[in-house]
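User: Thanks for the earlier help. One more: Electron transfer flavoprotein subunit alpha/FixB family protein. Can you show the sequence and predicted structure together?

Assistant: Of course, both are below.
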Amino acid sequence: MNPAHPSILIVAEPQGQQPHPVAYELLHKGRQLADARQATLDVLLCGTPGMETASLIHRGADRVYLMEDPCFALPEEQIFVAQMTAFLKELKPEVILTGATSFGRSLAPRLAAALNTGLTADCTDLHMDENGRLVQTRPAFSENILANIMTDTLPQMATVRYQEFPQAMPNPEHQGEVVRLPLPLPVPDTGVVIEKLRQLEVDITKASVVVSGGRGLKQQDDFAMLRELARTLGGEVGASRTVVEDGFISKDHQVGYSGHRVKPQVYIACGISGSPQHLAGMKEADVIVAINTDPSAPIFQVADVGIVGDLYEVVPQMIRRYGGTWPVL
């Protein structure tokens, strides 16, 4: 099934009956790569019966390869890899891109090993060089430098951080093909969900306003003040790695390289110094407001609005200014 033209292939992660939104971001970058390489832009989507595929075509995919089976209901990497590998060895794409979601970060290295190729993780940019080889850019040394990496083997594989690129815009006029694939291997026994012990508290990646607390908070209960400001502004609460590790708040709220990457309209950093690890997760917010008693804190270098002051004085004033109440009676 090796196509006449080279293939840039995106592995789309299922999210219920829809592709995960990171696939739309990969289509944006994938179209640039495909045009530069004069290649087709393909998508491989494995999911349960009834997957929605039109959005992938409308956002630029030339061809969507679709495998549907109940075995894909759970994020069992071994099942996905086994079914994908046989097909990918036949298709022979030059490039495979996967979103660096929790599932993608677990799936991609297993898939790379099965295909006997390399993998560059958490890329922030991708482009083709003059010889048609993929140049993969990723941060290194605590985000202090950017490394350009090239893979000697094929396919060239990379994972890309969620919300790194804009989403490809939908165009209902774009024509593409959906190719339904049979499972190349017998379906093995799959896991069974006995009980869901915990559900994600909040998805801060979708918030338009994020109010984050860091080392400047004295105790866990002080997050109540940040929650009130977030509630007043219609946002969510974030946190630095330090306070998460101290047990002040769950990891669902962590912003940074080892947490969530957020791009809200407004990001308010309260008592956060601004380590490279944290800045990597929020520096692309539209407006950054920093509150810190240390005027030399690195957070002020990326802030649009800097307030040198005590967050315990500034935040209550902001709550009252925007219609909230503090302290809450």
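User: Great, one quick takeaway?

Assistant: The mean pLDDT is 91.
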